[in-house]
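Can't paste images in this forum, so I'm doing it all in text. The chain is below; anyone willing to post the predicted structure tokens underneath?
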Amino acid sequence: MAAEADAPGPPRPGEELSEDRLAEYLRRALALGGPLRVQQFPGGHSNLTYLVTAGARELVLRRPPFGSTVKAAHDMGREFKVLSALAPVFPRVPRVVAFCEDASVLGGPFYLMDRARGLILRSRAPKGVALPPETVARLCAAFVETLVELHGLDYAAAGLAGFGNPEGYASRQVAGWTKRYRDAQTGEVGEMEAVASWLAGHVSPAQGASLLHNDYKHDNLVLDPARPDRIVAVLDWEMSTLGDPLMDFGTTLAYWVEERDGDELKAIAFGPTRLPGSYTRRQLVDRYAERSGRAVHDLDFYYCFGLFKIAVVVQQIYYRFRQGLTRDPRFAVLGRAVNVLARQAALYLGRPEL
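Text version of the structure:
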């Protein structure tokens, strides 16, 4: 059963869906009828996620945030495609059932998938869930193992050979995220400028190519409630592509806050990565290198890029809030988080040891 913190509730103001149009689409596309109920999941800061109950059938609906102009980050068709291709070769993805690109239905593209029930860990462990150190350590091992499995998939055999262009991927990412930051700026952050400049001059050469998730962290994993060290599903594939696997791993490292980090960084932690028994970033690196057989190098570039990218994502969300395109009250304090992430990145520039 899902943790209480992730229980769906009424849609947030301004993020309601037309139930009449959705009901008509479900009848036409999936032959689903019966009483319709639409609730919204409270977590996440990017794409919007709803629980749709049609009669006895439960589905999860994903659509872009209202008012967003960053289409590449909210490509529902892309997410639907990768989930469809992965289902036969990577069992830890939800089963997708329909994709709709007709904006007249719900005001934007969306897709539907079966609900993956389970436990999701966010910034702290939910009430009533026992996570002793030995369970947390096994979860960390499974966390790395699942990412290694993903990076080891034969993406061409899965039909994803044209899903991205691995050549020059890291350079394009640095340039692209720098541009996105400029487009969403609401003030000057000196450390962001310094980090962008450093990254552009220190792009690491790629070590092969793999399928990337690009947002791999605790709250994008569904765990078995009876065995919270077992991962049953990986969610939120909207940023997946082909490229350098260490770029993916660097983003995961950037989400991982540990006990020796400063209080500001701990205050914005994206997951419960400081629970007793948790790996440190160094232990994550060592485990990933051991299990993947891949040399993990230039950690200053990959870790700092991950922090920079997350800071830009946060800045884009904060920009939408400042522009009045979303009224989600959680977004009001995100400007401060950009500064904290930028300072952490600036601290590790040129420091290859985490």
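The chain is about 40% helix and 15% strand. Residues 79 and 238 are 5 Å apart (CA to CA).
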